[in-house]
Amino acid sequence: MKPIKHIYYWIAVLIPIFILSACSEDFLERPPQDSIVDASFYKTDDQVLAATALLYSKVWFDYNDKASYNLGDFRAGTAFSAYNDRGNVLFNTTGNTPENGAAWRSFFIVVGQSNLAINNINQFAGAAVSPTIKKMAIAEARFIRALAYRFLVMNWGAVPVIEDNLKLLSDTTVTRNTPESVWKFITSEMRLAADDLPETPIRTGRVTKWSAEGMLARFYLSRSGVESNGSGQRNQAFLDSAKYYAERVITKSGASLMKNYSDLFLFPYDNNPESLFSLQWVYSPGAYGTQNTSPAYLAYSSDIANGDGWGGDKSATWWMISQYDGIKTTATGMQGRTLDQRLKATFMLPGASYPEITQTIPGGEQKLIFPFTGTDNNFVSIKKYITGKAKDVGGLSASQNYGNDTYMMRLAEMYLIYAEAVLGNNASTADATALAYFNKVHTRAGLPAVEDPLTFDAIFKERTLEFAMEGMAWYDLVSLHYYNPAKAYAILNAQDRGLFFTAPDQFPNPTSWTFTKTSWATNERTIIANSGNFLLPIPSAELSQAPNLQKPAVDYYKK
Q1: Is there a cis peptide before residue 508, judged by omega within 30 degrees of 0?
Q2: Which DSSP state fits 59?
Q3: Which residues, at least 6 apart from 288, have a Cβ–Cβ distance to it below 8 Å?
Q4: Residue of 271, 288, 215 whose CA lies nearest to 61
Q5: Which parts of the sequence belong to the RagB/SusD domain (predicted)?
Q6: Which of 176, 190, 116, 118 is nearest to 148 (CA)?
Q7: How far is CA 543 from each of CA 62, 67, 106, 537, 538, rounded to the nearest angstrom?
Q8: By the 8 A CB rule, do 164 and 12 touch?
Q9: Tens digit of pLDDT for each residue in 154-174?
């Protein structure tokens, strides 16, 4: 039988549920074991919670592996790969681009497993399962499914909404649903999840009411532009809802900003006070798919990794570096130093030191000092999510096997959502609370407070700097594109994504850097974004085996 790689396979088959041999409170810290869950399984609270545990990790594996940064950052222009992943870097992603298919597949695996969890818990939960746990577990699955659909609708536009996998076995008429109706569906689902999730996590790493309300703030901010038809005006009721939920999370959740930005990515940072939802990876020898593999592809060299470290050609873009305050344009390029602490925590510049990471050097080891090669394509390499060798993390890492979590939502986003929602359709009018919330994020980075007027451009820039290399930047552009496509295209088309040379004024411990575009690399520096290539194409394998995906989209609620 030849491999089947299309949507109907991934969401119709009974993908194994990954459960634990024993369900103690530290279950998210240990690798799960594979097992098919049958009707005899859902008999206790621990078993029900184990059945939803995989929704926090393995189902997201194909997305987190390489697709997250390919779509979220390379496509958005915050970072680039000089020799690999060029389809996303050059904004000509096709139906055959590997990360396009991996992301689609992963999101529909998430949907399928969430559907199965809801169905199985409703059908098989025994009398010993408490109503509270049953309600919470179903809410977890609704939360995860809604988030997967948020990624689907923002990347591909019209996509099929599926709530019951098994119906697809006999239904060949499933088609895509309109973006407007997909957004209505996922907002409704997240509201239901918020009603049924607890205010404090039942176990470490589990989503809460505040995780769901944070997602509602995010959803409503994006949804406010969905029906504007590019008019530039967003739905005020949805902006008000985004403000409402963001403020509730800020004032009621008990979450707090980490004091230092760099601490967000220093081992062990998992499930810290700022995290509202993270994918829960574990160092898991022998249980492939439950670990975080992305650091293997982002670390610039095996000198700081566990036999992997294949990110030597990955770098911040010229455009990204230019966003940091203090980096000034000169006649020949850019030069300067920034007070923004996020640069050092996100990207590595020559001469910068990272004492938490061990570096192999000729004849021994030292605390990492990012090297200066002196060549004309010295990269500004990726720092975020790079935690070093096994010895740097208590032995809990190996090649392509890291245990650090992936942020999916942080409290900092709530402050910026509130500010943007208040500003809304008023080009430069925001209240004092919005400005204060904006400055909580801004000053945490070591920058002086911003005074009135607060503008959309300032908020957009702040989000870019705050969340670079967290797979977020692309979705900010999609949200903008909903109501102002011309501005989204202008941002993308003004970016320089080509090679450049970064020279420190001294090595180590530089006080400034000079950035110069690589003279021989004159091609493929810019892209052309437009209405014809903005959204991702549905993967070719899906279209060839599921032709209904090419039919016009219909309203999910009027089928």
Answers
A1: yes
A2: G
A3: none
A4: 288
A5: 273-551
A6: 190
A7: 20, 20, 17, 10, 7
A8: no
A9: 999 999 999 988 776 556 677
